[in-house]
Design a protein that fits this description.
Belongs to the TRAFAC class translation factor GTPase superfamily. Bms1-like GTPase family. TSR1 subfamily. Required during maturation of the 40S ribosomal subunit in the nucleolus. The protein is α+β, with helices and mostly antiparallel strands. Helix content is about 25%, strand content about 20%. It is built from 17 helices and 27 strands. The strands form 6 sheets. Strands 2-3-4-1-5-6-7 form a 7-stranded mixed sheet, with helices on both faces. The protein has a 6-stranded antiparallel barrel with strand order 8-10-17-12-11-18. Helix 4 runs parallel beside helix 5. The relative contact order is 0.12.
């Protein structure tokens, strides 16, 4: 019997690649003593066994747990600052005095009341729990006060209604607080015990479902009895703290007391003495201090008076009777401050941060000597001769039309070239705001005829007709911008070469070059610029973590002597406005160009035009400015937007002090009322394609120097405000 032999068409399978699944021993044998490049480096990383890896992970978990416990023990302890709690009622049916009455339990601890105008607060000292609290309050209608106090509060206590949870004002306040960044918070329900017993369970279930949308996996506590108030205090004391980056890297202080000493030259300016507890980081007297809503100032010295609210007050025993003891209360401690006052640190003029916010530009820098009259006349004659260009044009072409005909090299000749030298004038505007806005309306807006709006005879008589007309015009302009973005009609009374002399054509907006330093406005000479912003930011943050700052430590009760402060600051404090101060990082008092990514709140429908004055909450700052809007893209050129759109995120550009990110951003628009909306459009025919000629022209747009750090009075809440949020702020 013959054996089978495979033919030439037998399938040849690929050999198994055993190297992929080799063990450590086979790899070492094949390597023949050769070592990997990483093992030859100086930083040899040892391979840990599985037991060592578990031990190392256990150590890291233990260290994190100890750090959290240490933070809990320090906050509110005798060595740390008091636990500051901001109480915010989210419904108009919430009784704030009743909630404070339950929290001010004399059996729990010692209560020290304090009242500044419309702001009620009190200090609660509880030696049994080894904790001290400082309770403050703010109404959701006073939105800017809520946002400012939330920037320094350790915990926010939200009071909810048992039936609805929160009303429209409270819902809007929550949206703004979420956008700014929430610290540690607690939810408490007030008034559920007043409901019938059968309805209490249903009310708690409905409220839990409503709260779950905004606060998932958060427990609801009750606040109707003294026992429930005690449980709430324990919850506040044992909560894990949430961190806000913009305040943890800067020393800040909430003023418990303030005094004003006027200067000898003028009573309107003087030295402001602010007393409070240092939080966040150690406070150095040579740094610049920012008072929220009022601006930046320098400090003269820092005093260390006696803590007026010690957790364990001093006890002095009588010499006559050893069994008699006298307890030193807070009032006695304040009276003894002058005797025990100690100057902690005085400012050093050589090391103190400067208040210079702008660069003083040199008008002669990079300039040549002024030409003589003969040189000017020769240049003018030469320009006339060179401006005469011979072109081949179609028969019947006018001289005006010939100016727009391109040569073979893609450039137009004639008199239009004389306007190239005047492009920079667009960036050196020195007219008033009203003149500038009228010119912008004339240049940027499309001209069209719209019929008169029909008014109802039964319309509200109290409506301001002038304000209504302005708002209606804004709605029309916004609608036109949405329908025909970046389109402008050629004016009939002005030549196109004059109307668009500041624009230029680009073959491709994405790829065509445009020098970023070309024809910059004069304001750019006033700002500070970074050679490498990312490296500077990284270096400053590293110094905060590693370098020990000389000054007042966290938890100390200090008095800051702030120089050259207007008297209006202390007047607002006496009327009830909270006084909050932040220590600035290096360079944060200097002006620059800030680019912020924002998105419009879906509840706002009112048109917001570029260059309108808005109120900014940028990190710890609050200021007013007129921003520009542009598209948020990854290109090197960004298209200007005339209105703040609702569907996409935009970049807001302003002149403002440097703020190192991350920092949240909120924009608000101040209105006198919620305005009625109108829209009426009439069209007399359909446009055909041959009726219009379109050209892509571009020019650079720069913000105006409208920064104003003085925002003293809180703005009452209105439903048409804008709430915008951003995770980070970028600077150019």
């Amino acid at each position: 019997m013959a054996a089978h032999r495979s033919g030439p068409l037998k399938q040849q399978n690929k050999a198994h690649k055993g190297g992929r699944h080799r063990g450590r021993g086979s790899a070492q044998r094949d390597g023949k003593g050769r070592l990997a490049p990483k093992t030859l480096s100086k930083k040899v990383r040892k391979d840990l066994s599985r037991v060592d890896q578990r031990h190392r992970a256990s150590q890291l978990r233990k260290q994190k747990k100890e750090a959290v416990l240490a933070e809990k023990r320090q906050l509110g302890s005798k060595d740390g600052p008091p636990h500051q709690v901001l109480v915010v009622p989210l419904h108009n049916r919430i009784s704030l005095p009743e909630a404070f009455r339950l929290l001010q339990d004399r059996d729990t601890g010692t209560v020290h009341l304090n009242e500044w105008g419309s702001t009620h607060s009190f200090m609660l000292l509880c030696p049994r729990l080894k904790h001290r609290w400082f309770f403050t309050s703010a109404r959701p209608g006073d939105l800017h006060t809520v946002l400012d106090m939330a920037k320094v509060a350790d915990t926010i206590l939200f009071l909810l209604d048992p039936l609805e949870g929160w009303d429209s004002t409270g819902d809007y306040c929550l949206s703004c607080l979420f956008a700014q960044g929430l610290p540690t918070y607690t939810l408490a329900v007030q008034g559920i015990s007043s409901l019938p017993p059968k309805k209490q369970i249903d009310a708690r279930k409905k409220l839990g479902k409503a709260v779950e949308k905004r606060f998932p996996e958060d427990k609801l506590l009750l606040l109707d009895t003294q026992q429930e108030a005690g449980m709430l205090l324990r919850q506040l004391a044992n909560q894990k703290q949430r961190h806000l980056a913009f305040r943890d890297r800067r020393a800040h202080l909430f003023a418990h007391a303030a005094d004003f000493v006027p200067n000898e030259e003028s009573d309107l300016v003087g030295t402001l003495k602010i007393s409070g507890y240092v939080r966040g980081q150690a406070l150095n007297v040579n740094s610049v201090l920012h008072i929220v809503g009022h601006g930046d100032f320098q400090m003269k010295q820092i005093d260390a008076p006696v803590d007026p609210f010690p957790l364990n007050p001093r006890v002095i025993r009588s010499s006559k009777d050893s069994g008699t003891a006298v307890e030193i209360c807070a009032a006695d401690a304040v009276a003894d401050m002058e005797e025990d006052l100690k100057v902690l640190m005085k400012a050093d003029p050589d090391r103190q941060e400067s208040l210079q916010t702008e660069v003083i530009p040199d008008p002669m820098e990079g300039e040549q000597t002024w030409p003589t009259e003969e040189e000017l006349s020769e240049a003018h004659d030469l320009l006339k001769e060179s401006s005469k260009v011979v072109k081949k044009v179609p028969k019947g072409t006018s001289s005006y039309q010939a100016e727009w005909i391109l040569d073979e090299d893609g450039e137009s000749g004639g008199e239009g070239d004389e306007y190239d030298d005047t492009e920079h004038e667009d960036f050196m505007e020195e007219e008033s705001q009203d003149e500038g806005s009228e010119e912008e309306e004339e240049e940027e807006c499309e001209t069209m005829t719209i019929g008169e709006s029909v008014r109802d005879d039964l319309y509200d008589e109290k409506v301001d007709e002038e304000a209504e007309e302005k708002m209606l015009e804004k709605y029309k302009q916004q609608r036109l911008e949405e329908m025909f973005p970046d389109e402008v009609d050629t004016p009939r009374d002005v030549a196109a070469r004059i109307r668009f002399q500041k624009y230029r054509g680009l073959k491709s907006f994405r790829t065509s070059p445009w020098d970023p330093k070309e024809n910059l406005p004069r304001d750019y000479a006033r700002i500070f610029q970074f050679q490498n912003f990312i490296n500077t930011r990284r270096r400053i943050f590293k110094e905060i973590e590693e370098k020990e700052v000389e000054g007042a430590e966290v938890g100390w009760y200090v008095t800051l002597h702030v120089s050259e402060v207007p008297v209006s600051v202390v007047e607002h404090f006496k009327r009830g406005t909270p006084l909050i101060a932040f220590s600035l990082l290096p360079h944060e008092q200097k002006m620059s160009v800030l680019n912020m990514v924002v998105s419009r709140h879906p509840g706002n429908t009112e048109p917001v035009k570029a260059k309108e004055e808005l109120i900014f909450h940028c990190g710890f700052r609050r200021f007013r400015a007129s921003p520009l809007f542009s598209q948020h893209t990854a290109a090197d050129k960004h298209k200007f937007q005339r209105f703040l759109t609702a569907d996409t995120a935009l970049v807001v550009t302003v002149y403002a002090p440097i703020t190192f990110p991350p920092a949240s951003v909120l924009l608000f628009k101040q209105n006198s009322n919620g305005t009625h909306g109108h829209m009426k459009c009439s069209f007399d025919g359909k446009l055909k394609s041959q009726d219009t000629v379109l050209m892509n022209l571009y020019k650079r747009v720069f913000p105006k120097w409208t920064y104003d750090p003085y925002v003293p009075e809180p703005v009452p809440w209105v439903k048409s405000e804008i709430s915008s949020t951003v995770p980070e702020v970028d600077m150019e």
